[in-house]
Design brief:
The complex is a heterodimer of chains A (201) and B (196).
Chain A: H1 3-14, H2 16-26, H3 32-63, H4 68-87, H5 108-113, H6 116-129, H7 132-153, H8 156-200
Helix pairs in contact in A: 1-7, 2-7, 2-8, 3-6, 3-7, 4-6, 4-8
Chain B: H1 3-14, H2 16-27, H3 32-64, H4 68-87, H5 108-113, H6 116-128, H7 131-150, H8 152-195
Helix pairs in contact in B: 1-7, 2-8, 3-6, 3-7, 4-6, 4-8
The chains are: A mainly alpha (201), B mainly alpha (196).
Chain lengths: 201, 196
């Protein structure tokens, strides 16, 4: 695979465009300026996590005996929990001061952008290609695009408006619940194959 | 379980990065020498508690005759819930109340360093691993946590609040991964036992 193909693959698996509505719903309570700052920071963090996994992902997971299906199931579970809080927002206590916490690394940087699927893809290519610099360049290229998409997604709020965003949050929660279950089911399928192999023996 | 993964689990559950801030607020106002003395004493208490539960856990679970799959599933679920708490912390209602007296055993040694979650996990891990491995990983994790607590103000000045938060989140993610792996291992064991 050449550099551009790799970069395109990473970009597609990171799927920033598909995740724009979810990310916007997660940061909707912040000012426009803060949103751009948060999204930019999360993009950088997701890049760092991906690069770290590119170099030491395989030995790290092997040392901990973590299989690929666990990676998927883990991402699916966490995203599902987040989708639940989006669909059923925690009841606000009567105190007026609404203390909203910035999303920090979890959930936007990982597992939404750099999820289990992307991490296992990166590790697979790291084994195949033997040329880490090429992969690093591909990652960088992909993430330049990812960052542009993420930062510019803050402008979507201007179009949708506050009400539109609030309405969208629950809808996006439903979407995220479906997506997370999809990831979970993929992981569970892999796990089932392992179980069947044991049973066949 | 290898020494590395066991040590990492214990270290992650102790979550020194997440507790650094409330720890600093508890020991502020003492002279540096006094602080060091408090930290060392509390670390000692924590180590005693951990070793105690290590041996008690092994004995107790052997007595109760609990099978491996159950132990794996239970500890996986507990680990998962701990990790979720680290990842999505509940909004704290007020910092830990500062008492006039010097902290002694409570709240620094227990529950900050060796909390109920850690002790329960140690008990559950103790039965599935050998004593040597368990005790040595407890020691290593304890030493690392001890160094972090001893250098707490320097670390805090170095990486700041957001750095701490970043460390905590990443550690939480790793802990979730390990928890799920352990649960699935329990399912695997159960399946192998059941189909054999």
């Amino acid at each position: 695979m050449n550099l551009w193909q790799l970069a395109l693959t990473f970009f597609l698996i990171a799927n920033p465009i598909g995740n724009v509505p979810v990310m916007i719903a997660l940061v909707k309570d912040f000012s426009f300026h803060d949103q751009r700052r948060i999204l930019f920071r999360e993009a950088i963090f997701s890049f760092l996590i991906a690069v770290v996994f590119l170099f030491i992902g395989t030995p790290f997971l092997e040392a901990l005996h973590i299989e690929n299906y666990s990676l998927r199931i883990c991402g699916g579970t966490i995203l599902f929990l987040i989708s639940l809080t989006m669909i059923f927002p925690p009841t606000e206590s009567s105190t007026g001061s609404q203390m909203t916490k910035e999303p920090f690394i979890v959930p936007i940087a990982t597992p939404i952008i750099t999820g289990g699927g992307l991490l296992s893809t990166i590790m697979v290519y790291a084994k195949q290609e033997q040329n880490n610099l090429k992969l690093l360049a591909a990652c960088t290229l992909a993430w330049i695009a990812v960052t542009i998409v993420m930062v510019s997604s803050a402008y979507l709020q201007k179009i949708l408006g506050k009400r539109g965003l609030i309405a969208m949050e629950q809808l996006m929660g439903m979407m995220l619940a479906l997506l997370s279950m999809e990831i979970f089911v993929k992981g569970a399928t892999e796990f089932m194959h392992v179980l069947q192999n044991i049973g066949a023996r | 379980m290898t020494l590395f993964s066991l040590t990492l689990v214990l270290f992650l559950i102790m979550d020194p990065m997440g507790k650094l801030k409330s720890f600093l607020s508890l020991i502020q106002g003492y002279t540096p020498a006094r602080k060091r003395k408090i930290v060392l004493r509390e670390l000692g208490f924590a180590l005693i508690a951990m070793l105690f539960f290590n041996f008690v856990g092994d004995y107790l679970l052997t007595l109760l005759d609990i099978d491996d799959p159950a132990v794996y599933l239970a500890s996986g679920v507990i680990l998962f819930l701990i990790a979720i708490q680290i990842l999505f912390p509940k909004p704290e209602n007020g910092e830990a109340k500062k008492k006039n007296s010097e902290p002694y055993l409570v709240p620094i040694a227990i529950p900050m360093m060796a909390g109920p979650a850690l002790l329960a996990t140690i008990m559950l891990y103790a039965i599935t691993t050998s004593h040597v491995l368990m005790v040595s990983s407890i020691f290593i994790a304890w030493i690392i946590v001890g160094i972090i607590f001893l250098l707490s103000d320097k670390i805090f000045n170095l990486i700041g609040t957001s750095g701490l938060l970043a460390c905590e989140k990443l550690m939480g993610m790793v802990l979730v991964l390990m928890a799920i792996q352990r649960m699935l291992q329990g399912v695997l064991l159960f399946y192998t036992n059941a189909s054999a």
